[in-house]
Amino acid sequence: MSRSATLGELRASGWVSRPVKQELRENAVAQLRAGRALVGGVLGYEETVMPQLANAILAGHDVIFLGERGQAKSRIIRSMVDLLDEYMPIVAGSEINDDPYAPISIHARHLIADRGDDTPIEWVHRSRRFGEKLATPDTSVADLIGEVDPIKVAEGRYLSDELTIHYGLVPRTNRGIFAINELPDLAERIQVGLLNVLEERDVQIRGYKIQLPIDLMLFASANPEDYTNRGRIITPLKDRFGSLIRTHYPLDVEHEVAVIEQEASSLATDGVAVDLPGFMTAIVAEISQLARRSPHINQRSGVSVRMSITNYEILIANATRRALMSGETMTVPRICDLDALVASTGGKVEIETIEDGREMQVLDRIVKAAVLETFRSRVRPEHLGALVKAFETGLVVSAGEEVPSADYVKLLPDLPGLSGILADLEVGESPAAVASAMEFVLEGMHLTKRLNKESVGGATTYSGRG
């Protein structure tokens, strides 16, 4: 449809005004009929969160997303903008997106009364129909609803003049989507100000006998810990939200890996080519999965997917640093690079321990358990017999950051059966890939009590248990 410039042209074009929830519903119906996802780029929610979200939109409900940090709540809310029409007409100059057919501000009403079908029309892109506020204790009613603008009063208008109002975020998002993040952190007296927005669909500006029947789709997010402890959503407000949807972390390693690979920064580094084998990515994902089940980690605080992503990036960074120092032009992360994850893990979890120094032990055990789980799932035990015998006859292998990749390749003739394991791991034949796989196999054999391991500084030695 061509964009009409005046109210008369808009009427002649056949454009029909729709409430925002109806607009979202009709566009969501078109998406579902076409077999397209309502939200792109959010993995692992296809069978859980997304059906509930579709139901809420089809039912015309305002929505609360309840879940721990790092569960894509804000991303989902922001993506709802894509379900709006690309452009929407408003009365020109309107601060609150007045519907040309049903204006609510005094500015728009007066303009249409004066100009009639010649009233100028502006077209607003859907990106401008989204408002968002992070709830903080200092958020005021003026921020959300509005307040008297002293500058407009100083210009000569009377206080009783509606034109002296400075509209808050909520009315400025009229005919759009408004989101409040961390809703329980909003002071209870401010939450009361949202009651009319959700039920009566209007806002009341202090000091004025006016009501603005605004048209909104309201989303909110909350953390369960905040929901019950730090703050609360007042009962009347919670009752006015139509749907409460629980989000969750990736339910298995495969989904965690998919999120990591989608969200992590590029692997490109000047002068060094980086390749990440599947088993190393799986270890990073398994660390987060185990941390979410660990009794030594505060589960109310949660273990965000951001930890998986930052661990993945640090793993690559450490491998790159190692390659730069050794003069190699290609690198593949190894088991020895996992020590670097302390920096990216420590700030993402809250360890529940009363003993000093226990934090490092807890993290170390989780990393070892992740390596063990990945080893058991990817290496068949029948391939290890010949390797164990080689170590029982006196074979000793040195590993660690300072051992160049070429040294691992030289050991292949002394490690019977390893070639078959490398093929199963699908690591390729480059020296860096062979070194990574070999360290993984050696560490896995140690953790399954097939080999002894001694570590001094950055050097590690694997030997038989005889």
Description of the molecule:
The chain has helices at 7-13, 20-33, 49-59, 73-79, 106-115, 141-144, 150-154, 169-172, 188-192, 195-198, 224-230, 235-240, 253-263, 278-291, 305-326, 341-345, 358-378, 385-392, 405-410, 418-425, 431-447, and strands at 63-66, 87-91, 121-125, 130-134, 146-148, 165-167, 176-181, 216-222, 243-246, 273-274, 330-331, 396-400, 452-456, 459-463. The chain is of the alpha/beta class. It has two domains: 7-246, Rossmann fold, CATH 3.40.50.300; 253-463, no CATH class. A five-stranded parallel sheet has the order 4-7-8-1-9. Helix 2 packs across helix 3 and helix 13 crosses helix 14 (278-291). The longest helix is centred in the last third of the chain and has 22 residues, at 305-326. The radius of gyration is 30 Å and the shape is elongated. The mean pLDDT is 88.
Shape descriptor: elongated
Summed up, the helix count is 21
- Multimerization state: single chain
Class computed from helices, strands and strand pairing: alpha/beta
Strand content of the residues, in percent?
5-15%
Instruction: Provide the spatial order of strands within the biggest beta sheet.
Output: 4-7-8-1-9
Tell me the helix content. 40-55%
Distance between the termini: 81 Å
Characterize the main sheet. Answer: 5 strands, parallel
The total number of structural domains is: 2
- Return residue spans where pLDDT drops below 50 for at least 5 consecutive residues: none
CATH topology of the largest domain: Rossmann fold
What's the number of extended β-strand segments?
A: 14
What is the assigned CATH homologous superfamily of the largest domain? Answer: P-loop containing nucleotide triphosphate hydrolases
Highest-level CATH class of the largest domain: Alpha Beta
Compute the CA-based radius of gyration.
30 Å
Chain-averaged pLDDT: 88
